[in-house]
Amino acid sequence: xxxxxxxxxxLCIEYSNDIxxxxxxxxxxxxxxxxxxxxKLKSLTSGKIIDNTFPSSHKITVxxxxxxxxxxxxxxxxxxxxxxxxxxxxxNLEEKLLEKADLMKEGxxxxxxxxxxxxxxxxxxMPQYLNLAITYTExxxxxxxATNAMKPATLExxxxxxxxLFINEGDVIKIDTRSSSYVERVKR
Length: 188
What we know:
This protein has strands spanning 2-3, 12-15, 18-28, 36-43, 49-55, 59-62, 65-75, 80-84, 90-93, 109-115, 120-125, 129-137, 150-155, 160-164, 172-176, 181-185. The protein is mainly beta.
């Protein structure tokens, strides 16, 4: 058991029969009344985000978690298959654990958050940025960069995103995995 004074970003706690990670927190000490901690928590099982306020002396149950790096191998009917980079063990993960599965290409490295005592996968963290090639898009227009006009493009993983008009087939672009959006063209 820990105290609310130990709350920090990224801490995993057990609350309401679920496991949550702390996204934001704020220790508040009003002029009148007791202090409290205002938090924003994200469920690791459902992905739902809730706001919660803990009294300053409230006891919380901290969940021990481990981050392990895995390499994406392939997808089949069972799910997504990954290989542990240290032990070379293969792990099968369900699609509900992966938020942006359509952006993963074979060989990409991700981090999986495991419950340390139960050795149970909780969530998958993609790298913040990925470099992917464009396999199909309509021909680009040279010099048309004054407006923020966008066009659809298909990536090498099969995902579809919107890119600026000057992007062509075969170009490699940097993608923000949090929003599945175009960031910049990558020079070769």
